[in-house]
Amino acid sequence: MRAVIIAAFVAFALTMALTPVAANAFRRLKAGQPIRTDGPQTHLAKAGTPTMGGVVFIVTTVVAYIVGHLVLMALPEAETHQFSRPTNFTATGIVLIGLFVACGFVGFIDDWLKIRKKHSGGISGRMKMLGLTIAAAVFGIIALYYTGSVDDPDISDTVATPYLSFTQDIDWLPLTKIGAVIVFVFIVNATANGVNLTDGLDGLATGASMMAFAAYLIIGFWQYRHWCGGAGGSLSPNYCYDVRDPLEIALIAGAAAGAMFGFLWWNTSPAKIFMGDSGALGLGGLIGGLALASKTILLLPIIGGLFVIITFSVIIQTISYKTTRRRVFRMAPLQHHFELAGWSEVNIVVRFWIIAGIGMGIGLGFFFADFLRVAG
């Protein structure tokens, strides 16, 4: 746990320190956020606010992960008790960090084009989806096919398995490896776009993502403490998790949560910097990757419940308008509906954070309830 705490603190401290530096640099480069003219009129005052803040917390998360990993390797063997610890960077780390960076890069291209064009339209939706699909497919193939160096027969030798999962693999819901990659591509596209749609108000997506990462930090560390791959076995004799590298999951989720906490200081209303698509798409890709690596794919829509609600508000609005020429909401995504209804931005953000927290709590409740059902 010490390495996870250190990684989270390093990510927090670096993000707190570097975000205002980046904001000033982006301002000098005139890398300001173009604002949609058809959106809420109150947003026009935000025009020119530095964007691409996601570059900062992606870099600080990667640095914090490396620092945490070095701490892991330096810890005395006695401090790990009966549990094994990764002595090298793992396949799980490659998949999760790779997804974070690759999806963030797709968003960076979109942000850069918006800045150059001085228009809120960057790359087309199809090109954005293509970029996310390529990133998800590459790392999905690594997750399904790369075995790495796992000699313990009790745990998976790949990051992912060809099954759907809830709190463990569901044996009666098998997929082929190709089918599993396709499912993963869908998950990454869904989570990346869900976070991107949520990123419409100051601090909203940052706080909601931080809660999702906190959930996966808890899940990853609990799986590590009840891991089939522990040198002395799980702490529970009746139940263990065959996740590939649960401590890596906790380490990366902790670093990302710490980075979000630091970024929130500058991103909360009134925002001094926006995360941009580089941040939103990167966060969504990482959240999807954490669900895959921790074998909690079907638990993800609950933990990320706010992202699901906001995404469905857009889907409902689009279908309704195209079929009946009527709008269900005053404006989509959902947060803008409440803005036009007269709610203040801060009220919407805080209340939506509460919804995100409820989803996180329910998701963790299902996770631990399943453990108690079997292990108890």
Question: How do you describe this structure in short?
Answer:
The chain has 376 residues and is an all-alpha fold. It is built from 12 helices and 2 strands; from the N terminus they run ααααββαααααααα.
Which secondary structure elements does this structure contain, and how are they paired or packed?
Layout: H1 2-28, H2 54-74, H3 91-117, H4 125-145, E1 163-165, E2 169-174, H5 177-198, H6 204-225, H7 246-267, H8 276-293, H9 300-303, H10 305-324, H11 334-340, H12 345-375
Antiparallel strand pairs: 1-2
Helix pairs in contact: 1-2, 1-7, 2-3, 2-7, 2-8, 3-4, 3-8, 4-5, 5-8, 5-10, 6-7, 6-8, 6-12
Describe the structure.
Helices cover 64% and strands 2% of the residues. The protein is mainly α and 376 residues long. The longest helix is centred in the C-terminal third of the chain and has 31 residues, at 345-375.
